[in-house]
Amino acid sequence: MGKQQHAFELRALQRAIEVARPWLLLGIYILAAVNHIWWLAVPIAVITCLAGFVQMHDTIHHSLGLSKKNNDLLLSLSGLLLLKSGHALKVTHLRHHGQCLSDNDPEGEPARWTL
């Protein structure tokens, strides 16, 4: 019998897709940009950033089912993709979850801004 899978655990194929997505999109962006296909390159650049952010968020919450070492490496790489420190973002994001919308929640600050 195979290993039993928990309800919210990613299968190997799902994990591979989640890990590879931003990097495949980056490759498509580079190909489009090198070939001056700007109508494709620009939206792919935006989508690549969104995919990188999602990947960073998933690594912050350790939701991809990777080992600690691989999770930390992927957090660093996805941060590099977005020109951010993945580990610094992890600190503020976990504070956000622990102290949501308090005075000590840097991510919740915009929710307190007036229109």
* Alpha-beta classification: mainly alpha
Number of helices: 4
Evaluate the radius of gyration.
17 Å
Q: Major β-sheet, in short?
A: none
Percent range for helical residues?
55-70%
- Strand % is under 5%
Annotation, overall tally of beta strands: 0
Rounded average pLDDT:
88
Shape: globular
| Alpha-carbon distance between the two ends | 58 Å
The SSE string, one letter per element, is HHHH
Low confidence ranges: none
Can you walk through the features of this model?
With 115 residues, the protein is mostly helical. It contains four helices and no strands. The protein has helices at residues 12-34, 38-60, 68-81, 86-98. Helix 1 (12-34) runs antiparallel to helix 2 (38-60). It is globular. The chain starts with 11 loop residues before the first helix and ends in a 17-residue tail after the last helix. The mean pLDDT is 88.
List the helices and strands and how they pair.
Blueprint: H1 12-34, H2 38-60, H3 68-81, H4 86-98
Helix pairs in contact: 1-2, 2-3
